[in-house]
Amino acid sequence: MDSISIKSYFKGLSSGLQEQLLSELTSLRVDSKYNLIDIRERKFNDKQGVCPHCSHIKYTKMGKDKDVQSYKCSGCNRTFTPFTGTWMAQIHKKDKLADYLKLMQEGLSLEKIRKKLEINKKTAFDWRHKITHSLKGLSETEFAGITESDETFFLHSEKGSGKLIRKPRKRGKQIKTKGISKEQVAVIVTADRKKSISLTVAGFGRIRKDDITEAIGNKISKQTILCTDGHSSFKSFTKENNIEHHVLKANAKEFVKQGIYHIQNINSLHGRLKKWINKDMYGVASKYLQNYLFWFKFMEEYKNTDYMKSIVSFGIENTNARAEYLDAVKNVYSKKTTSF
Questions:
Q1: How many CB atoms lie within 10 A of CB 107?
Q2: How many domains does the chain have?
Q3: Half-sphere exposure of 191 toward its Cβ, with a 13 Å CA cutoff?
Q4: Distance (Å, whole) CA 258 – CA 248
Q5: Is the pTM higher than 0.85?
Q6: Assigned domain for 93 exists
Q7: Are the C-beta atoms of residues 196 and 141 closer than 8 Å to each other?
Q8: Do residues 156 and 183 make contact, with C-beta atoms less than 8 angstroms apart?
Q9: Minimal CA–CA distance to 226: which of 188, 200, 180?
Q10: Is residue 213 part of a domain?
Q11: φ, ψ for residue 138 (rounded to 5)?
């Protein structure tokens, strides 16, 4: 069907069907490879970008290399492309990224992604961690009003390392030590009633006041009302920061205070997080756990938006992503075991 026939067909549709078709075509364009690769280039061409090296607002075009537009900054005189500094930098098969993101959203394993896209499994692995690490810069606003916080634990995992520093155990089996031990990795999870979320790996074993300060110390204010369990570290943290604190004692069957103070939202969030990590992702190596927490936070906060558009728009704006990823590869991911 040629363009004239398509136009004639479109004109023959009712106004309602025309609107529906336009909406569907717009959605397809948003998710297309063209949009994924060129959205940032079009922004630069419209003079809406800044130099990723020095943030200067003036730059000029410098021709194309392999169909990718290059620019020269008028401030620092350095050249750059739309992908400089972002997680897309130095990726050679950008035409496969849109499909990769869709498969990643669907939760497919790296092996299934490898087969569908006909790429190396190591490539699929690297792309996943470049993307998830770039979500580190996802904005975390100050927690407002009633805020819930609690810790949850994951078994220490050295999945994929090929060398264990502990006695091996069958995947999925619990440790023999009772209670909280150094074989467990603590994650501090915090959320307010406006759905702002923070997930931070604290380290091995029980959390301390310093861990809480590191996780949420710069995200709370005098107006924050914190709801937690009876952990003494939370008591010390709130007292030191002069924060209103409501303690819920589950062992005394105290689940709600005054009808509004509880930690049920956090407990629900814990359940979704554990299912996703342990079952959907089949467990993750502890040294990569924080990356997966970034990913989970993104999915929770953007689940009612266009996932593809959101992750691409956010990812390409983070021009520190590649440098931070390479630093993590050198100092964290290269190690055989967990560094914290």
A1: 11
A2: 1
A3: 19
A4: 11
A5: no
A6: no
A7: yes
A8: yes
A9: 188
A10: yes
A11: -55, 125
- pLDDT by residue for the chain (340 residues), tens only, comes to 577 888 888 888 888 888 888 877 765 554 455 466 677 788 888 888 899 999 999 999 999 887 889 999 999 999 999 899 999 898 888 889 888 988 988 889 999 999 999 999 999 999 999 999 988 877 667 898 999 999 999 999 888 766 666 666 665 556 666 667 888 999 999 999 988 899 999 999 999 999 999 999 999 988 899 999 989 999 999 999 999 999 998 787 889 999 999 999 999 999 999 999 999 888 899 999 999 999 999 989 888 777 777 777 777 778 899 999 999 999 888 876 676 7
- What tokens appear for 111 in the block? 């092996």
CA torsion sign, 229 to 234 to 240 to 241?
Answer: negative
User: Who's near 129: CB < 8 A, 6+ residues apart?
Assistant: 288, 291, 325, 333
Dihedral pair phi/psi, residue 103, rounded to 5°: -65, -35
- Is position 6 within any domain? no
Q: Residue 262 sits in which domain range? A: 141-170+177-303
Q: What is the largest CA-CA distance in the chain?
A: 74
| End-to-end CA, the chain | 61
Read off the CATH number of the domain in which 204 is found. 3.30.420
Residues 145/192, Cβ–Cβ less than 8 Å: yes
In a domain, residue 90? The reply is no
Q: What angle do CA 248, 277, 180 make, to 5 degrees?
A: 50
